[in-house]
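Exercise 7b. Backbone tokens:
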């Protein structure tokens, strides 16, 4: 009876048997929030029945769940029409097809974490950005396939964006960051550590307006020559 009334289920970093998890899968039917981040033991066979019974999920976190496949997202993509928060960081099983299906069937996502999802293409990320124009928080950290094309698309479509993590996206340049500075009026935070092609030439447009995770580079002092 207790589990049947639950609206929030958080089992982060837990190890449990399929039989134990089946207790939740058979009794929880009113979940709004499901957080299973770092649950390495869970598989599609355990998760899918739970998702099929909870169509009211608004927040789903499967980050670092290494034993799943893209198939587990099917019930969420098709039936969770109020999904607003989706966190899939370090899910190497996430595919381009799954992202495209999300963009096709979902409409309300505002907070998305796709950090280190190395199997998805930049083209599907572009489709994703164009669809979810109300997105406020987007994490693309560690995705080396991300280039200035993504930043140009974000600057055109993501007018509600407040926080963007591009750490380790080593292919982006000053041109893309400049587009963000000029066309994302609500941006409050930009993380760009490891982006070696981004310099102070573009970052200075954001300083004093946006939180950056890189300090300004001190100018090299001009040597003073004293005649002896």
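Sequence design result:
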């Amino acid at each position: 009876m207790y589990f049947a009334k639950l609206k929030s289920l958080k089992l982060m970093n837990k190890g449990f048997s399929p039989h134990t998890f089946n207790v939740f899968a058979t009794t929880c039917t009113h979940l709004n929030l499901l957080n299973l981040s770092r649950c390495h033991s869970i598989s599609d066979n355990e998760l899918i029945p739970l998702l099929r019974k909870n169509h009211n999920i608004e927040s789903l976190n499967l980050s670092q769940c290494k034993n799943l496949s893209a198939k587990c997202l099917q019930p969420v993509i098709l039936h969770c029409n109020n999904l607003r928060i989706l966190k899939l960081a370090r899910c190497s099983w996430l595919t381009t097809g799954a992202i495209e299906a999300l963009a096709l069937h979902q409409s309300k996502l505002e907070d998305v974490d796709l950090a280190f999802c190395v199997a998805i293409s930049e083209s599907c990320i572009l489709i994703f950005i164009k669809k979810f124009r109300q997105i406020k928080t987007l994490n693309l950290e560690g995705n080396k396939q991300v280039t200035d094309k993504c930043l140009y698309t974000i600057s055109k479509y993501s007018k509600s964006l407040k926080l963007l993590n591009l750490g380790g996206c080593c292919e982006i340049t000053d041109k893309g960051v400049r587009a963000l500075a000029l066309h994302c009026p609500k941006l409050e935070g930009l993380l760009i550590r490891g982006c070696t092609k981004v310099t102070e030439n573009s970052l200075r447009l954001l300083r004093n307006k946006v939180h950056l995770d890189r300090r300004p580079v001190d100018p090299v002092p001009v040597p003073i020559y004293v005649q002896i």
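Instructor comment: Residues 86-94+103-215 form a domain with the Leucine-rich repeat, LRR (right-handed beta-alpha superhelix) fold (CATH 3.80.10.10). Strands lie at 8-10, 33-35, 59-61, 85-87, 111-113, 137-139, 163-165, 189-191, 211-212.
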